[in-house]
């Protein structure tokens, strides 16, 4: 089955966005299972990013509107080392709860990358050049997963993304458990 | 031992744990897990996933290998945080876990990464995974130790296995005796500043040289603790007599240490002359934003904080007490022992005839209970949390925006000596001005 393209508005961030900025530690108390409680991870996703760096290039853009549980943005475009810091899986979970489907960055901290994939939360795509200076918050994007291409609609340009490689099967399965079942590992 | 030629310590551990004669960097292997560690923030969601995937009544793969140490949000009125402790307690009881250290009992420990060695779970040659990024601390003992998420932890709870990519190793060698005013924290801040917060992503970081091997286990733990701040997968120090002596009497389990082959291959080797080291800080808002204390001396501060898995061990407090004793403090200063054992030691260990506890209390420090406390902010009633626009100098490990509470606050990371000197001075200060040993 062909993977569906991901399209929607971009939210742009800088370098070294750590997991405390993605979901501040004080919010790590809600249940990740309870359907009512887990929505708070969406509300507080990216609430730790300093205001001036929230939604580049202008900044001052709230990722989620006050009192909302979901964001209007679908794809995060960030600088290097996205997801560094703590190992909290709540970070990719919070982005998923907010409605994010994919992140595009030149590179990731390894625990975040692994959590995003093994938990099946968001797809972490690597780009070959840092796109956080080219894409503006609110720009319409489309990711062609089959060809590993990012279409930046306002600029009319397409940028190659690194193919997912070894982990593509886990991403397609929806996470490590689904993958392990499919391969009869237990 | 021909089969082990050409491998680093990390490669040898992963080869043995995956049942292979040899492995090389980049290879993905499934390893048998010796110890799985979790705590109150990530344990409950991991348990939730374990039950969902393996069944409500499923048993963990090996109850002797699962260690649960609540330490993050302990002394708070937050009802959700307290509920997380209840979830751990219920799980430990239904699974009959021998290694659960419950809050509010004599068994309570505090910060897991400092409690793990105290309890003898940091055994050379073994594989440890933990649902906390600072799990890498245990690499000081020559163990392969790294942080994972809830899903991977749930997978281990059910299967006892996990896949890992074998990392390349970066070696950092410190040649010569470390000057007495320099602490392990200065070494690791120097390294992170040199290679950047993603300078070791996907790699192992090994610390070596006579400067490192002369350190006690707590100093080595400070080095391996912060490899995650450079993106490292694990940190290691080759085990030696210091390691074995520390563990003697703490574990009955036999362990088989492994060592680097003489012809092991490294991603890179960096050499430092110990005598050239300077007291260092990481300025806001990144652990790689390095400066020497000389460069930032006199910088305004409003608070000092001594605690956490990085800087809340007994040797960290001994260092701070040497400078604080007999000096009035000009900063609001928080003292948070990592574990209940360290807290007890504060009342027993003396400097110039006075206990460390008395030295800190008489100087006017705020004395906390053993836990992670404000290192990671936490609920708003957390002890020492930066709730406003504080400028804090801290022995902790991270200073990204909002790490210790408000995103309007600023954090400087430094050694216990530098934090103590700054607490006395009121601005960033050089420990050499306060340590008699530095004069000559």
Describe the protein's architecture and organization.
The complex is a heterodimer of chains A (186) and B (440). Chain A is α/β, with parallel strands linked by helices and 186 residues long. Chain A has helices at 19-22, 39-44, 90-98, 110-118, 168-173, 176-182; strands at 6-12, 75-77, 102-105, 123-126, 140-144, 149-152, 157-160. Chain A has a single domain, classed as Aconitase, domain 4 (Alpha-Beta Barrel), CATH 3.20.19. Helix content of chain A is 22%, strand content 17%. In chain A, strand 2, helix 3 (90-98) and strand 3 form a beta-alpha-beta unit. In chain B, helix 6 links the parallel strand 7 (169-175) and strand 8. The model of chain B has no long low-confidence stretch (mean pLDDT 97). Chain B is α/β, with parallel strands linked by helices and 440 residues long. Chain B is globular, with a radius of gyration of 21 Å. A seven-stranded mixed sheet of chain B has the order 12-11-19-18-13-14-17, with helices on both faces. In chain B, strands 3-2-4-5 form a four-stranded parallel sheet, with helices on one face. Chain B has helices at residues 9-17, 43-54, 79-94, 112-118, 150-159, 184-195, 210-213, 217-225, 241-247, 293-296, 308-311, 314-324, 340-348, 356-363, 416-425, 436-439; strands at residues 28-32, 35-38, 66-68, 127-130, 144-147, 161-165, 169-175, 204-208, 234-236, 268-273, 280-282, 290-292, 303-307, 332-336, 350-351, 354-355, 366-367, 391-394, 410-414. The longest helix of chain B is centred in the N-terminal third of the chain and has 16 residues, at 79-94. Chain B contains 16 helices and 19 strands. At the A-B interface, helix 4 and helix 6 of A face helix 2, helix 3 and helix 5 of B.
């Amino acid at each position: 089955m062909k993977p569906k393209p991901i399209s929607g508005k971009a939210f742009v961030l800088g370098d070294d966005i750590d997991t405390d900025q993605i979901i501040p530690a004080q919010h790590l108390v809600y249940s990740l299972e309870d359907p009512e409680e887990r929505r708070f991870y969406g509300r507080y996703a990216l609430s730790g990013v300093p205001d001036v760096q929230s939604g580049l290039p202008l900044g001052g853009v709230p990722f989620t509107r006050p009192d909302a549980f979901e964001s209007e943005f679908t794809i995060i475009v960030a600088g290097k080392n996205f997801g560094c810091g703590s190992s909290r899986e709540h970070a990719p979970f919070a982005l998923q709860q907010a409605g994010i489907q994919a992140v595009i960055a030149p590179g990731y901290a390894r625990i975040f990358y692994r959590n995003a994939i093994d938990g099946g939360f968001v797809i972490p795509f690597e780009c070959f050049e840092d796109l956080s200076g080219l894409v503006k918050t609110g720009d319409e994007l489309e990711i062609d997963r089959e060809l590993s291409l990012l279409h930046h609609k306002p600029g009319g340009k397409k940028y190659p993304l690194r193919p997912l490689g070894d982990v593509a099967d886990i991403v397609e399965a929806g996470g490590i458990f689904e993958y392990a079942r499919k391969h009869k590992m237990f | 031992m021909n089969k082990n030629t050409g491998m680093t310590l990390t490669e040898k551990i992963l080869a043995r744990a995956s049942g292979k004669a040899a492995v090389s960097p980049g290879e993905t292997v499934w390893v048998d897990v010796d110890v799985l560690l979790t705590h109150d923030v990530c344990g409950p969601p991991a348990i939730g996933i374990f039950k969902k995937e393996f069944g409500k009544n499923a048993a963990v793969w090996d109850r002797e290998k699962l260690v649960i140490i609540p330490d993050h949000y302990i002394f708070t009125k937050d009802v959700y945080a307290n509920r997380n402790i209840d979830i751990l307690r219920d799980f430990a009881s239904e699974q009959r876990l021998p290694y659960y250290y419950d809050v509010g009992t004599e068994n309570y420990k505090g910060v897991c990464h400092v409690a793990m060695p105290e309890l003898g779970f940091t055994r050379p040659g073994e594989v440890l995974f933990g649902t906390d990024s600072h799990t890498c601390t245990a690499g000081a003992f020559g163990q392969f130790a790294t942080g994972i998420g809830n899903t991977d932890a749930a997978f281990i709870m059910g299967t006892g296995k996990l896949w890992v990519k074998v990392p390349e190793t970066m070696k950092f060698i410190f040649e010569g005796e470390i000057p007495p005013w320099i602490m392990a924290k200065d070494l690791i801040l120097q390294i992170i500043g040199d290679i950047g917060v993603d300078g070791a992503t996907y790699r192992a970081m090994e610390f070596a040289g006579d400067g490192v091997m002369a350190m006690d286990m707590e100093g080595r733990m400070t080095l391996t603790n912060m490899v995650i701040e450079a993106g490292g997968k694990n940190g290691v120090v080759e085990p030696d007599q210091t390691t074995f002596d520390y563990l003697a009497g703490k574990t009955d389990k036999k362990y088989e240490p492994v060592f680097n082959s003489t012809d092991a291959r490294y991603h890179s080797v960096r050499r430092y002359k110990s005598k050239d080291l300077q007291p260092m800080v990481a300025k806001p808002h990144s652990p790689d934003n390095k400066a020497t204390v000389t460069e930032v001396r006199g910088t305004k501060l409003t608070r000092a904080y001594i605690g956490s898995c990085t800087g809340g061990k007994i040797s960290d407090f001994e260092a701070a007490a040497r400078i604080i004793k007999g000096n009035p403090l000009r900063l609001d200063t928080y003292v948070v022992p990592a574990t209940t054992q360290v807290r007890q030691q504060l009342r027993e260990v003396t400097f110039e005839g006075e206990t460390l506890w008395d030295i800190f209390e008489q100087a006017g420090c705020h004395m906390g209970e053993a836990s992670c406390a404000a290192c990671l902010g936490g609920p708003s009633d957390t002890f020492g949390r930066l709730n406003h626009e504080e400028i804090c100098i801290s022995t902790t490990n991270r200073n990204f925006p909002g790490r210790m509470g408000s995103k309007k606050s600023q954090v400087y990371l430094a050694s216990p000596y530098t934090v103590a000197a700054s607490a006395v001075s009121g601005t960033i200060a050089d420990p050499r001005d306060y340590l008699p040993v530095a004069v000559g």
